[in-house]
Amino acid sequence: MPNESFRCERCGNCCRGEGFVWLNDRDVSRIARHLGLTTDAFLKKYAQQMPGHRRHALINQNDPELSCIFLGPEGCLVHEVKPRQCATFPMMWTREDVEEICAATRKQANATGAA
Predict the structure, then answer these.
(1) Quick one: pLDDT band at residue 81, thresholds 50, 70, 90?
(2) What pTM value is reported for the model?
(3) Which of 22, 46, 52, 62 ranks highest by number of CB atoms within 10 Å?
(4) Helices 39-46 and 25-35, axial angle in degrees (round to 10)
C-alpha cells in the first residue's frame, strides 16, 4: 500500500476499467460549478443514478477501456475539482491489485522493496 510520500504519476490507469466513481453532494456541486453548469444539468449530462442507491456515479466514455467521462488525452479534465474517491486514490483503495493499476504505487513498492 502507498504511504504519505505517494506521488501521483497521472498515468490515468485508475481512470479506466470496470467500476464506478461515486459522487457525493459536494463533488456534484464543485464539478458542476467548475464546468459552469447547474447541478441538475451536470447530473443529467455526466452522471447516472445507480439502481438501489441514492448516490450518483460518473458515466464512462463509450470506449473499450471504459474510461471515465472526464479522462482526456492529457489526463483528468476536472483535476482541480476531482471527486473525493479520485482524490483519495489509492490511499483508500482496498483492492489487492492496486499495484497493477497504479504506476506510482508500483514504483513506490519497488523503491522500498515491498514488491
Answers:
(1) very high
(2) 0.77
(3) 46
(4) 90
The domains of the chain are located at 13-110
Cβ contact 95:7 at 8 Å: no
Work out the burial of residue 11: count CB atoms within 10 Å of its CB; fewer than 13 is exposed, 13-18 middle, 19 or more buried. Answer: middle
Closest to 54 in 3D by CA, of 25, 26, 81: 25
Higher pLDDT, 53 or 41: 41
Pick the closest to residue 71 from 1, 6, 16, 5 (CA basis): 16
What cell was used for 29? 456541486
As given in the structure block, the three cell numbers for residue 98 are 492496486
Give the residue carrying C-alpha cell 482526456: 72
For residues 112 and 94, give the distance between their C-alpha atoms in angstroms, rounded to a whole number: 20
**Alpha carbon of 35 to those of 2, 59, 78: distances in Å?**
31, 16, 8
